[in-house]
Amino acid sequence: MYSDNVTPEPGKYYVLGKPTAKPEGVFQYDGFQVIERATDQVIKQFYTFDEAHKFRKALQAGQAFDGWTPAFILQPSPRIG
Question: What structural domains and CATH numbers belong to the chain?
């Protein structure tokens, strides 16, 4: 996936902004996603770029699955009862 609103840093994860076009011809960002490059999976969503970028840096530093997160890990937990 490629977009103009992707963080330029190389690595296993990137931050993607979710823009909404405003009538004035500008964009408003309605959240940011940390995406795994190898699987194209959204790992987590954030309200601010700073939060998303900090989380991406933590993943790059070795937290998590080293760029190959199993899909079932990202699914919501089933409710019992």
Answer: 1-61 (3.30.730)
pTM: 0.73
Written in H, E and C, the secondary structure of the chain is CCCCCECCCCCCEEEEEEEEECCCCCEEEEEEEEEECCCCCEEEEECCHHHHHHHHHHHHCCCCCCCCCCHHHHCCCCCCC
pLDDT digits (tens, 9 = 90+) for 1-41: 445 555 556 788 999 998 888 888 888 888 999 999 888 88
Q: Could you tell me the strand order of the sheet in which 42-46 lies?
A: 13-21, 27-36, 42-46
